[in-house]
Write a structure and sequence with these properties.
single chain; 27% helix; binds flavin-adenine dinucleotide; alpha/beta; FAD/NAD(P)-binding domain; 9 helices
Length: 374
């Protein structure tokens, strides 16, 4: 097995790994990105809503709240500077019954405490003036102007270009198998066609669904006792016909519904979802991403609460993604786990585990945080 020397190794070329690689390269590090697949961003980073979230929902003070608000602002600026298409279309969070309407002031307050700008409560009539296809049942809505959509693949290519321009490299078809913490850094072993050993000063583990087993396979690193991964599949459907909305439409969170949202993607298609289907904890990636057409029934029922004009037969199954969660069903939602030397004590190692939504929106801010932890 050949042995190579490296400065900073990033495991995984999804949104998070690419952004960490960019931030490390900008801070003067020589970066080597190891990716198991034959192309960048083929897992969760290409199986999501491509929404730039404003940061309404997350617990104030959490990493999710901070990195989403900061990351969203940075992402719009980055897209503008790098010619990446982004559309600040705004979003309406709509309440269609008394229970949901009663919950809107608390959500607005949380958003404001999180530092979300350009956000206000509007009544049903104003919501329908903005979006005439909304149901007459919509009583109140939160209008967030900072929410939007962007071309995530153009963004990933821009990140890759930035770290490569500064001397970094990306190696595809190179799964990391394990590692050892040594006196001088971290030694990584790769599998695949050309197994090799890489002696690195620093390692960022941004392997998405596989981040926890990879962290545990680094002998001498943190083992995260008791932690296990849980998987929630999110399926999308598209609606045929002319787009009926200009903004993102999200129903208020309600325990009886899945909160299926609606977006008009950059190609002008109406996309609905994702829903939430808890998979068995015993599953390991790669997942079955096939969308079950029978799930359309829930989509019709839930979406018609706010869009009664959705026609029978309009929905077709689209794609799906799987959220990597570090808490199980019924447990309070967890924050991102961004675990650096100050917490686990291994110099030069950062593990990123459970980077579910809003990981894409937050990715630029996560990259800069990780480069700082190094
Ligand atoms: C249904 C759904 C909708 C979402 N919608 C949004 C949204 O609208 N907005 C938003 O902000 N966020 C959204 N998210 C969250 C967002 O997509 C993720 O947080 C983000 O893509 C995570 O990126 P990542 O780089 O951590 O993971 P991934 O994109 O999964 O990247 C991990 C990479 O690591 C590689 N890898 C794995 N094992 C190894 C190994 N052994 N060696 C080398 N490489 C390895 C994989 O091949 C992969 O390329 C959504 C998520 C889901 C599931």
């Amino acid at each position: 097995m050949e042995t190579f020397e490296a400065d900073a190794v990033v495991i995984g070329a999804g949104a998070v790994g690419l952004s960490c690689a960019r931030a490390l390269a900008l801070s003067g590090r020589e970066v080597l990105v190891l990716e198991a697949a034959s192309a960048i961003a083929t897992e969760t980073s290409s199986r999501n809503s491509e929404v730039i979230h404003a940061g309404l929902y997350y617990t104030t003070g959490s990493l999710k709240a901070q990195l989403c608000v900061e990351g969203g602002r940075k992402l719009y600026a980055y897209c503008a500077a790098h010619g990446v298409e982004a559309h600040r279309c705004g979003k309406l969070v709509v309440a269609v019954d008394d229970h949901e309407a009663a919950a809107t002031p608390a959500l607005l307050k949380r958003a404001q405490e999180n530092g979300v700008e350009d956000i206000r409560l509007i009544d049903g009539a104003e919501a329908r003036r903005l979006e005439p296809a909304l149901s007459p049942d919509v009583r109140v809505a939160i209008h967030s102007e900072a929410s939007g959509l962007f071309d995530s693949h153009a963004y990933f290519l821009a990140l890759q270009g930035e770290f490569e321009d500064r001397g970094g490299s990306l190696v595809l078809n190179t799964p990391v198998a394990r590692g050892d913490v040594t006196k001088n850094g971290i030694e990584i072993e790769t599998a695949g066609d050309n197994p090799s050993r890489i002696r690195a000063q620093s390692v960022v583990n941004a392997a998405g669904h596989r981040a926890l087993p990879i962290a545990r396979s680094i002998a001498g690193g943190p083992v995260y006792d008791g932690m296990r991964m849980h998987w929630v599949k999110g399926s999308y459907f598209t609606a045929t016909g002319r787009a009926a909305f200009a903004r993102l439409i999200y129903p208020m969170h309600n325990q009886a519904t899945q909160g299926l949202h609606l977006a008009i993607d950059l190609g002008g298609r109406t996309r609905l979802g994702p829903d939430a289907e808890w998979l068995s904890d015993a599953l390991t990636p790669p997942f079955d991403y096939e969308v079950d057409s029978a799930r359309a029934v829930h989509f019709y029922n839930e979406v018609r609460r706010y869009w009664p004009g959705l026609k029978d037969g309009a929905l077709s199954p689209d794609y799906s993604g799987v959220r990597p969660k570090i808490v199980g069903k019924g447990e309070p939602s967890a924050d991102f786990l961004i675990d650096g030397p100050a917490r686990h004590g291994v110099a030069g190692l950062v593990n990123l585990i459970g980077i579910e939504s809003p990981g894409l929106t937050s990715s630029l801010a996560i990259g800069e945080l990780v480069a700082g932890l190094m």
